[in-house]
Specification:
Layout: H1 22-44, H2 54-61, H3 71-87, H4 98-108, H5 111-124, E1 129-135, E2 141-147, E3 158-164, H6 171-174, H7 178-189, H8 192-201
Antiparallel strand pairs: 1-2, 1-3
Helix pairs in contact: 1-3, 2-3, 5-7
Length: about 200
């Protein structure tokens, strides 16, 4: 069965008050994400990966230690990354559930320290990539960063929160100000209830 572009869980203009414009979502979701889905379907048709679960394709095509990943991985991972990304944001600035706040304080010292480390990870990712909050294989919470489309699935980690730091994610609204984009993402766009749910299920 072919992969499909998931609908956004909100209207294209729903995040505008939080700093992500309708134009950004039209380009990012409707064009960029759709291009990954289209390419993935073309690449997997008639191959050993046709009909396989997206997560299995990501894990099965990842080349550890290689910066230049193969085309199937690149498009599968970016389809997975973006499908999570849309769910990790929400209009209305949902409050952070208490259990999640407590776990962040335990792991990082404070919520602000977590935000500082997460922002630093995104800013420090040279070129394109992602910043992540993950449950690591030992059960601890960690902030990580990955290049291009690489994601926590590749390392046996559970993704709780991810922020796309490819330029197409922020250039319309923030131009070259990646640190401001990341700070705004954490302060105004994150669906903390979704993050807490992922933590509870990890």
């Amino acid at each position: 069965m072919a992969f499909e572009l998931p609908d956004l869980p909100y209207a294209h203009d729903a995040l505008a008050d939080g700093g992500m414009s309708k134009e950004t979502l039209e380009y990012h979701h409707d064009l960029h994400h759709n291009a990954y889905v289209t390419a993935l379907n073309n690449l997997t048709a008639g191959s050993e990966w046709e009909g396989k679960a997206l997560e299995d394709i990501v894990r099965g095509t990842y080349q550890a230690g290689s910066v230049a990943q193969n085309a199937v991985f690149n498009n599968a991972s970016q389809h997975w990354n973006h499908s999570q990304f849309w769910q990790m944001m929400s209009p209305g600035r949902p409050a952070m559930p208490g259990e999640l706040e407590a776990r962040l304080k335990e792991a990082f010292g404070s919520v602000e320290k977590f935000k500082e480390e997460f922002t630093a990870a995104g800013v420090g990712q040279f070129g394109s990539g992602w910043a992540w909050l993950v449950v690591d294989t030992d059960g601890t919470l960690k902030v990580t960063r990955t290049e291009n489309g690489v994601n926590p699935l590749c390392f046996g980690q559970t993704a709780l929160l991810g922020c796309d730091v490819w330029e197409h994610s922020y250039y319309i609204d923030f131009r070259n100000k990646r640190p401001v984009y990341l700070q705004n993402f954490l302060d105004n766009l994150v669906n903390w209830e979704n993050v807490a749910e992922r933590l509870a299920n990890a």
